[in-house]
Specification:
This protein is α+β, with helices and mostly antiparallel strands. It contains 19 helices and ten strands. The termini are close together. The structure holds flavin-adenine dinucleotide (FAD).
């Protein structure tokens, strides 16, 4: 990362003063349970409505969505799209005043889970439209823009897309080359450039397009990204590939686009001029949360199938599920899926409660859920043995579909670096400020007391406020691990200073810890709520308790191994070997 990129990232991610989220504070070894405990549930009335809606979505999916056919034909039938529109799914989260159902992010995640059980491509299609395609319009649009576009989008009469990626700008979103120049005489923005891999790009009636714009700042003219609402009827809009042939998610339509002096009316700027990267990041917070839901839905389906096979398939005169290596797979799946679900609904509820800062939580959910779905696919296919290799089962399709989850909306490696670095940066700033304050203790007294306060909190393990006695051991253990994590973060910063940002293997380990802590916390909170609200003991509750406790053990092992890896590793040897093999010397 060069200085310019770093400056931009700072400006982008940290320009606004927000109260630190749960995930940000754990890097200090501090727990703020206010958004996690008690586990968020919709009201009884809302839950009834949501359950009924999800049931209707499931009935529709069962009857009309044939994932294998959609995959073979590489197309989602028009009737399916029309049906999704009729049910209101394409406008679920759009407020009622704009023609949508005005439902919560929680309700949306539950619905995406269902669609994803039946067809990953259909879930992706809905997400590309609603979770990212129209989200910028919903969050940053003017009243006129919303009045004009949202009603038909909500009814599914027209579709939306989000177009950021370009041939030379994938993970590095700030590297986009598409440029918009204002034409004063015509009062339009003239856009030139190429976009690649836009889902729904050739079938959308309105696209959020990111382009570079030169703007005047106090420091002089600067190049900043701006979001534009683009429609395919604008002169200069060209579709160069309407539906690229793909490995998976084949039913979704992935397009390449070109803009040649595309004329976009001035009133189609979306959000502030020069504020496009913030628009992008905010939209992607939503997108990543729904990625979590899609992965959870597919994982739940696979788990049910894996359990059936473990029970019904006999070898060596025993059910497969009686062998320890199969038990390990089933047990791990059950525990991990409980955590996936707990973290998905928790993160969705952060959006519903309008928490200001969810970027770490949504990134954690996306990486965790997509990686775990991949493991679960592997294990399900192992349990099914040769049967999994034939297209009569949906597993190979689901495997091809799931491959996208680790790449789209932020490749998991980039997200892991992001998760590690964002938390570290907060602690680093405190350390730096405290260092300065120690040199001039009176003028910087406020900063110093703030820092010492955080250190005092860190001397003892934070309390995790579970109410159930049976969960106290797990809560105490997690508290100790958060304390160890906080200390390890400070130690890593003191040892490596700014160069920690280039030690990606360390950032990865810290990200692993943060993911394990967030998901274990979601698990404990959810389980505590189930235990506290259960009218009486039951077999189901006992199994749920086993499941949640098992996940806490898994998370604990990840944290231990990752912290251990900070001190004992062979990072240098591996990185030097890679340099030898590629011949790259950078920086
Ligand atoms: C089916 C499909 C649909 C898509 N839909 C859309 C869409 O609707 N709209 C849209 O704008 N985009 C879309 N995309 C693009 C998608 O968001 C990008 O593919 C993604 O952001 C990654 O960019 P890239 O593929 O160019 O990978 P690259 O940036 O080339 O990265 C490749 C790999 O390099 C590694 N890497 C890169 N940078 C780093 C780093 N800093 N540190 C460590 N490792 C690194 C990672 O392993 C990464 O996976 C879609 C892509 C696909 C495949």
């Amino acid at each position: 990362m060069d200085d310019q990129q770093r400056k931009l990232a700072e400006e982008l991610l940290f320009s606004e003063k927000k109260s630190p989220s749960f995930a940000r504070l754990i890097y200090f070894g501090i727990v703020d349970p206010s958004t996690i405990f008690p586990y968020p549930h919709p009201t009884i009335e809302d839950k009834e409505k949501i359950d009924a809606f999800v049931l209707r979505a499931e009935e529709f999916a069962k009857e009309h969505i044939d994932g294998n056919k959609i995959d073979r034909d590489a197309a989602i039938p028009d009737e399916v799209i029309a049906g999704l529109g009729r049910l209101g799914i394409l406008g679920m989260t759009i407020p009622q005043r704009y023609g949508g159902l005005g439902m919560s992010q929680y309700a949306y995640c539950r619905t995406i889970e269902i669609l994803s059980r039946y067809c990953g491509a259909t879930a992706l299609f809905v997400n590309a439209h609603q979770s990212i395609g129209l989200k910028a319009l919903l969050l940053f649009g003017t009243e006129e823009q919303k009045q004009q576009w949202l009603p038909p989008l909500a009814r599914g009469e027209c579709l939306a897309a989000f177009s950021l990626t370009e041939p030379n700008a994938g993970s590095d979103a700030n590297g986009i080359e598409t440029r918009a120049v204002f034409d004063i005489d015509k009062h339009v923005w003239r856009i030139n450039g190429r976009k690649q891999w836009t889902t729904n790009g050739a079938i959308a009636s309105v696209l959020t397009v990111m382009a570079r714009t030169e703007i005047q700042t106090p420091e002089g003219k600067q190049d900043k990204i701006t979001a534009f609402l683009v429609t395919p009827d604008m002169p200069g809009f060209q579709i160069t590939a309407a539906s690229l042939e793909k490995v998976g998610m084949r039913g979704s339509k992935t397009a390449n686009l070109e803009f040649h002096d595309l004329e976009v009316p001035a009133e189609n700027v979306l959000g502030p001029i020069g504020g496009g990267l913030k628009v992008c990041l905010t939209v992607l917070d939503y997108g990543r949360t729904t990625f979590g839901a899609a992965c959870t839905g597919a994982a739940k389906y696979l788990y049910e199938r894996a359990v059936q096979q473990a029970i019904n398939r006999y070898q060596f005169k025993r059910p497969l599920g009686s062998f320890a290596l199969v038990k390990k797979k089933i047990g791990m799946m059950g525990a991990v899926i409980y955590a996936m679900e707990a973290a998905t609904y928790l993160t969705a509820s952060l959006i519903d409660r309008q928490c200001e800062d969810i970027m770490l939580e949504s990134a954690i959910l996306k990486v965790f859920a997509s990686d775990k779905l991949w493991d679960i696919l592997y294990d399900t296919m192992q349990i099914y043995g040769g049967r999994s290799f034939f297209t009569s089962e949906p597993f190979e399709r689901m495997m091809r579909d799931a491959r996208l989850n680790m790449i789209g909306e932020g490749s998991n490696e980039v997200m892991r670096v992001f998760i590690g670095a964002v938390g570290l940066r907060d602690v680093g700033l405190e350390l730096k400020a405290a260092g300065a304050a120690l040199k001039t203790p009176f003028s910087e007294f406020g900063q110093l007391t703030n820092f010492t306060g955080k250190w005092i909190q860190r001397l003892s393990a934070p309390t995790i406020p579970v109410k159930s006695d049976i969960l106290q051991p797990e809560a105490r253990q997690l508290g100790k691990e958060i304390r160890r994590f906080g200390l390890a973060v400070t130690k890593a910063l003191i040892a490596h200073r700014e160069s920690i940002i280039e030690r990606q293997q360390h950032l990865d380990r810290l990200a692993n810890c943060a993911m394990a802590i967030y998901t274990a916390m979601a698990t404990l909170s959810r389980l505590d709520s189930s235990i506290q609200n259960a009218p009486e003991p039951s077999l189901a509750l006992e199994t749920e308790t086993f499941t949640g406790k098992a996940y806490c053990k898994i998370a604990s092992e990840i944290i231990n191994n990752s912290l251990e890896g900070l001190n004992h590793n062979y990072d240098n040897e591996i990185e030097k070997l890679s340099d030898r093999l590629t011949g790259i010397r950078f920086p």
